[in-house]
């Protein structure tokens, strides 16, 4: 029985690893922290895999664990990192550089959001979850999701790097969402 549970867990990890790491990256802004965060959440999921596997949506269960583990990072003492607006050296411009600049601007803007707003924005607009799904993942009400999304998007709209990239579309309030 234990071997069967372990096999089901391993299948889950193989199928969802990259998706969970991508979500963790958006929550943390750092690839190494994202992998550590994902491993921590999966270790906790493994310890209670019987309960997780019985859930209607094991991925949503693990995603909630991921968000909780990320919140735990802020409760512990840690060394803060200083993010810079631009890399020290500028390479030649091409499409890849432009994409990297856009990604850098987005990650810097997301890093400027408080953890709860960042989690709501990532889950709501990157993961494209409904307000109810985000509320369930974060353990809060849909109203809290709405207010945190509104505040987070308002703050992102004021970030100069994003306004320039979007050609004013973000500042004008045009964007995704349900």
How much helix is in the residues? Answer: over 70%
What's the main sheet like? none
**Form type:** globular
Uncertain ranges? 167-178
The helix-strand sequence is HHHHHHHHH
Structural class: mainly alpha
How many helices? The count is 9
Question: What's the overall average pLDDT, rounded?
Answer: 81
Percent in strands:
under 5%
Describe the structure.
By secondary structure, the chain is mainly alpha-helical. It has helices at residues 2-28, 31-47, 49-54, 58-75, 95-111, 115-126, 131-138, 142-157, 160-165. Helix 1 packs across helix 4. It is globular.
Characteristic key phrases:
single chain; 178 residues; mainly alpha; globular
Quick structural gist:
The chain has helices at residues 2-28, 31-47, 49-54, 58-75, 95-111, 115-126, 131-138, 142-157, 160-165. It is mainly α.
Which secondary structure elements does this structure contain, and how are they paired or packed?
Elements: H1 2-28, H2 31-47, H3 49-54, H4 58-75, H5 95-111, H6 115-126, H7 131-138, H8 142-157, H9 160-165
